[in-house]
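REQUEST ID: PR-0412
SUBMITTED BY: lab tech R.K.
PRIORITY: routine
TASK: structure prediction, single protein chain
INPUT:
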Amino acid sequence: MDPRTDRIKALISPIIDDLGLELVELALRNEQEGLTLRVLIYREEGVNIDLCARVSREISRLLEVEDPITSAYKLEVSSPGLTRPLTTSRDFMRNQGKKVKIKFAGRQGPLTSIGIIQNVDDEKVLLTVEGEELAVNLTDIHKAKLVIEF
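STATUS: complete
OUTPUT:
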């Protein structure tokens, strides 16, 4: 992870919090077009383009003053959508009862399972996988996303 992201997160968190939003993901990446700062925001009532634009303007003004990124970059602010990664206990709690694909550290190496989120606490997620219960520590999860069924 780029060390600047911790500083950027500390700088923009008050903006996100004041607007009643949750910061889902903050990433600073070198892409083909150059450096991109990607900010994913969430709120229960949903996120629209006007809110993304407002957050973008406020973050831009702040970062111009604080200047944690000294080179040129592109700022992207958006909502994570249905395919967003589940990274926090709150993400899993919001999606209890839904199907999830989860990659995690097993005793003998990385494992992948698909199951239904049954219960969540601050330390672990309890899934039902093919009729069996599976408890996974949040710290062992490498990647988790909802399985969208049509």
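NOTES: The mean pLDDT is 93.
REVIEWED BY: pending
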